[in-house]
């Protein structure tokens, strides 16, 4: 049977808990909105950054060109977007507005994709002891074409590691995939993918699937996007699957 703590033990526990709480310093921020569409008619935007923590936060902002190679995102530094200010400090509870815009406003035939990287950086002064997690937020920015064309095709392919679901964007604007469900006609062996992903124009996105999850034959595909739903029927053959 556990014995009750005496007053000295209880005091020691309270002291230790207090020390742990003091060693974890809370610092956080949020941003709004979480995405932008720019154009010649609207070549700039404003991002609101609020310090929701209880300590000052120092923020650095950068811009990168954004593409995908199937399963991973590829980012490269770019000067296509102007940022003002690129680095700043925000006091607890305060708001900073970041203004940004196209360096050379023009209407592309195919949508261009960038990301704003909002990163917390250590302050220049001495750091108090304790655990400190630096935050990083990535915001998509699209330079949209005048005429939008949406076209996305789906395939299932067998590869050495198993089945792979592939979405190819043949249009000139992005598609944001919210969730995916694959199932056999009887509704059994349903496979759910709930991690949001972007399929950028002229590029493709791959989702590896576990072996044995989907049987050969007809496969139902249900996709939820930020613009609506997609329903397709795929046929799983011995070595190839394509949309019907």
TrEMBL record:
Q: Give a Pfam family name.
A: PapD_N
One GO BP annotation is:
cell wall organization
Q: Which keywords describe this protein according to UniProt?
A: Signal
Q: Where in the numbering of this chain does the Pili assembly chaperone N-terminal domain appear?
A: 40-145
InterPro entries annotated for this entry? Ig-like_fold, PapD-like_sf, Periplasmic_pilus_chap, Pili_assmbl_chaperone_N
- GO cellular component term of the entry, any: outer membrane-bounded periplasmic space
Identification of the protein by name: Gram-negative pili assembly chaperone, N-terminal domain protein
PANTHER family found in the cross-reference section: PILUS ASSEMBLY CHAPERONE, SLR1668 PROTEIN
Q: Where is the signal peptide?
A: 1-23
């Amino acid at each position: 049977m556990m014995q009750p703590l005496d007053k000295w033990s209880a005091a020691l526990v309270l002291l230790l808990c207090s020390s742990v709480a003091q060693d974890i310093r809370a610092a956080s921020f949020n941003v709004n909105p979480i995405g932008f569409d720019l154009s010649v008619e609207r070549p700039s935007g404003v991002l609101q950054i609020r310090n929701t923590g209880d300590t000052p936060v120092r923020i650095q902002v950068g811009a990168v060109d954004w593409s995908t190679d199937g399963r991973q995102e590829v980012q490269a530094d770019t000067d296509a977007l102007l940022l003002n200010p690129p680095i700043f400090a925000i006091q607890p509870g305060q708001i900073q507005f970041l203004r940004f815009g196209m360096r050379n406003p023009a209407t592309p035939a195919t949508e261009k994709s960038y990301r704003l990287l909002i990163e917390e950086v250590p302050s220049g002064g001495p750091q108090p002891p304790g655990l400190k997690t630096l935050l990083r937020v990535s915001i998509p920015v699209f330079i949209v074409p005048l005429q939008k064309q949406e076209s996305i095709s789906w395939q299932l392919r067998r590869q050495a590691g198993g089945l792979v679901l592939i979405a190819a964007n043949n249009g000139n604007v992005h598609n944001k995939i919210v969730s995916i469900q694959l199932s056999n006609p009887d509704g059994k062996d349903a496979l759910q993918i709930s991690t949001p992903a972007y399929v950028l124009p002229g590029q493709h996105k791959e989702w590896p699937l576990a072996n044995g999850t989907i049987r050969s034959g007809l496969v139902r595909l249900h996709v939820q996007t930020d613009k609506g739903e997609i329903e397709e029927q795929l046929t799983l053959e011995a070595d190839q699957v394509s949309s019907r």
